[in-house]
Amino acid sequence: MKIDFANLKYQHEIYKDEIEEAIIKVARNCNFIMGDEVQELEKNLEKFTGARYAVTCSSGTDALLLAMMALDIKPGDEVITTPFTFIATAETIAFLGAKPVFVDIDEKTYNIDPTRIEEKITENTKAIIPVSLYGQPSDIDTIQAIANKHNLQVIIDGAQSFGSTYNGKTDSSLGNISTTSFFPAKPLGCYGDGGAVFTNDEELANKMKSLRVHGQSKRYHHKYIGMGGRLDTIQAAVLNVKLKYYEKDLVLRQEVASKYTKAFENKLDITLPFVEEKATSGWAQYSVRVKNRDELQARLKEVGIPTAVHYPMPLHLQECFQYLGYKQGDFPISETVSNEIMSLPMNPYVTDEEIEYISSKL
Ligand SMILES: *Cc1c(COP(=O)(O)O)cnc(C)c1O
């Protein structure tokens, strides 16, 4: 058996006629920049997420930049986040000249541990960025309460969690600003780079709309220092088609996750994913913990089972962040999990036979 990790080809096959027609329409109209499809997508995203404002942009990384620029994060500021995430979460903080301040993760959810946040708050702290890792929102109520108490902003990095919920609300509709990514391998992927920011605050929404077109107020008049951060019309056209079927994708992903969990429940040496009762996950990844990870990965590869590691090195140990002065041992849970974590094939189309095969080889 040869299993596909994200199975993007199969997904294209299913929606091929509609998606290709949408792409051709943009090509024929030549409305490549901010065409009608972009506004249409933003309306659709608002409806889907329940956020009052959706502003699309060029990637999940640029979504984080737009959010922090809108909140005036600048040199000298500190932003609290998790070291167990993709580099973009902390890289964008540093890119704006602010200082990433890490807080270790919860051992079960792998999201930022809210009980450790307050001890890291200083007079320079401006914001907290919880990451909805593998698709599961962080404990937003607790984090928001800490933020309110200390007058901080909350930016949710929801690059992996589009459509997932916390107390019945999508995590795009929570926080001061929430971001997402439409990178092809994310749960809702486009056909290149793409992203979005969400907020319930009209002023912030308007500022981010301006920031993504070079801070302009009207053509060639620039109110802010901004960026070139628009979503291509072609990507919006693809997403308008895929979003129509996304609710179904989420159900299928949940089914795959539940089947994995059931198939593995008697394997005592594997730590299974844990989702809080008040949350649902978009299952960007189905990640388990094993003791002999690297060896196991190699053996699974030999029998046609692709795996991945999200992520092998926590951010406080990355070369680019050496200047922050962290060392091995500073965030023991992140360090242990990064040595043991392994993601299994996850997409809406993983079959029962594949799950059985993977379970037998594990
Ligand atoms: C993928 C990802 C990003 C960046 O998104 P891009 O669209 O690739 O720029 C940011 N944060 C997290 C947690 C991610 O997984």
UniProtKB/TrEMBL annotation:
Residue numbers bearing the N6-(pyridoxal phosphate)lysine modification: 186
Keyword Repeat applies: no
Catalytic residues of the enzyme: 186 (proton acceptor)
Signal sequence extent: none
Single GO term (MF): pyridoxal phosphate binding
Gene3D superfamilies: Aspartate Aminotransferase, domain 1, Type I PLP-dependent aspartate aminotransferase-like (Major domain)
Lineage top rank: taxon: Bacteria
Pfam family name, one: DegT_DnrJ_EryC1
CDD domains tied to this protein: AHBA_syn
GO BP terms, alphabetized: polysaccharide biosynthetic process
Record's keyword annotation contains Aminoacyl-tRNA synthetase: no
Keywords per UniProt: Aminotransferase, Pyridoxal phosphate, Transferase
InterPro entries: DegT/StrS_aminotransferase, PyrdxlP-dep_Trfase, PyrdxlP-dep_Trfase_major, PyrdxlP-dep_Trfase_small
UniProt record similarity statement: Belongs to the DegT/DnrJ/EryC1 family.
The protein, known as: DegT/DnrJ/EryC1/StrS family aminotransferase
Annotated source species: Sulfurimonas marina
High-level lineage: Bacteria, Pseudomonadati, Campylobacterota, Epsilonproteobacteria, Campylobacterales
